[in-house]
Amino acid sequence: MADVQIGKSQVYASTLGLGTNKVGGHNLFKNLDDEVGKDVIRAALRNGITMLDTAYAYGFGQSEKLIGEVLQEDEFDRARVIIATKAAHIPGDESKMDNSPEFLKNAVEDALKRLQTEYIDIFYIHFPDDTTPKNEAVAALHELKEAGKIRAIGVSNFSLAQIKEANLAGYVDVVEDNYNLLHREAETELFPYLDKHHISFIPYFPLASGLLSGKYTATQKFDQQDPRSKKDDFTGERYQKIIATMAEIKVIAQRNDASVPQLILAWYLKNPHIAAVIPGARNVEQMLANAKATDIRISHDDYELIDDLFRF
Which of 24, 48, 63, 161 is most exposed, with minimal Cβ within 10 Å? Predict the structure, then answer.
């Protein structure tokens, strides 16, 4: 599996990582099994996936804890694993964010303990708060980088203006934000600045809550209690257009001897603006299927065709 440099840092990570919100993220997903989650991490590492993307918010530290337990096993070499984690949620009052230097320094120390490691490869400010100057927040992380406690600095869910403020001293290495073939605002809002300043971009929600997996049908209905019933992507003409487009995507996937999710992930891997992709997995089977996306070499014509199909 290919590696990619994260920004201007000395961190090199696999282009396909593992998003671990389904590993220990009991506050986000129902019916998760921590032992299954640890098996997912083990299988990822055994199959060449070196980047594990986690956060305090995934189980309020439980995801980090499970990763730390797996990396203590003799089979795995910590030096070959890229741990990316995030913080901003105030413990005990997780609806509020804090980017203050004191909070971030404490958050890194707490994450190091949960992960049972001496350093974190990529540390993100998970969400912006309303008060802290972003360059001051990043300056605190730069101090931790100089001290060897983190190796690369990231921000997540920041607007372009906030990214520019955070990067006043040129310290930001990577941005993580919502991006997929259905939600492409980053292409015009973020990519030009990130490319110019050699800041890596890593998208989350690459399969758009399953819409890009090909599992939904035109006749599917969502109960009013289902959050999807309130989202534009799952209702009305837009939903029908997405389903119709996915029918065309299935033909392209068959031509490439791939499943639909594998084809979509392969498209991101070919996108020059994207450093790495971090799909999540609830079980080992999903993780192994996602990993096969790195074996798919879609042609330039198919890449452009997929690109055009989602221009609506």
Answer: 161
pLDDT confidence band for 225 (50 / 70 / 90): confident
The DSSP bridge pattern shows strands 120-125 and 150-156 to be: parallel
Whether the CB-CB separation of 4 and 247 falls below 8 Å is answered with no
Query: The CATH number of the domain where 289 resides is what?
Result: 3.20.20.100
pTM: 0.96
Residue 1 has pLDDT above 80, yes or no: no
Residue ranges making up the domain that contains 138: 3-210+259-297
Nearest Cα neighbor of 305 from 262, 255, 239, 234 is 255
Domain count, the chain: 1
Residue 242 lies in a domain: no
State the catalytic residues: 58
Q: Tokens at residue 38, please?
A: 């640890």
